[in-house]
Amino acid sequence: MNRRTMRMKSVLLHIVTTTFIQMVNSSNMATMSKMKAMYILGDSSVDCGENTLFFPFLLNNLSLHPCDGGPSSILPHLLAKRIGLPYPIPFYSQNGSTEVLLRGINLGSTGATIMSNPTNPVLQSLNQQLRQAFEIFQLLQLELGQETANDFIQSSTLFYLSFGKDDYIDFFRSNSAKGPGSDAEKLSRVLVDQMTNAVQYLYGSSVRKFVFMGILPLGCAPRFLPLTNDSGSGGHRGNRVVCADEINDFVSKYNTYLEQRIVSLNVELNDAELIF
């Protein structure tokens, strides 16, 4: 892992943890002591291949941020450590015992997308991970009783969602020849709508605390550098990297739409806490 990547992760971790602590302080200091488990939904930003079938044989190099340092190097792991929570084990590594489920589960999968991808069943979508989360809720209700399980979900869990990167990678890769045009902006709104639906489904299952991650500038990723105007130099101008600004603009719009929607959801779901 190069120094730039490590520095970026460090900055992101500081922002997320600082905001999270502020959220807790502004609502109820006792909330921190009640937080017992983190449940993670997302893509390669939260999974190093442990939840992905045939990884890395079929999906190698699809991740924008490879896990050079193993699972302990990814942001949700660092966040869990910072706030004193056990790091969730991968969904496909757990045995279904109540003790394990109560410690949190990582449902994230490398290459996962918000939109379902019927052409590649290996990749898990947001909806598939939601179904797995609901399975966990049902198991907890069977073992603990519905009231106890719902109280645990509502007062003691944090849900961390990090999606969208792989949706854009697929989109820009398939539209690189003709240019993304207005379709990319439409995609941004559709993706945010899907994320909103996910929040409402989880809220309906008693989840009240959410952390959302935006997408880092994809236009500066090596795979997209040849799409810059200076394509003959492979995205470099002298010693300087020239990013694909159009791609970064569309990703920025997604982040803006998502942040605006989260602000609205905080008002609509007034007993929930959502941070971006």
From TrEMBL:
GO molecular function, one term: hydrolase activity, acting on ester bonds
Gene Ontology annotations of biological process type: lipid catabolic process
Signal peptide limits: 1-26
One Pfam family, short name: Lipase_GDSL
PANTHER family given in the database record: GDSL LIPASE/ACYLHYDROLASE FAMILY PROTEIN (AFU_ORTHOLOGUE AFUA_4G14700), OS12G0126100 PROTEIN
Family: Belongs to the 'GDSL' lipolytic enzyme family.
Name this polypeptide is given: Lipase, GDSL
Organism: Cynara cardunculus var. scolymus (Globe artichoke)
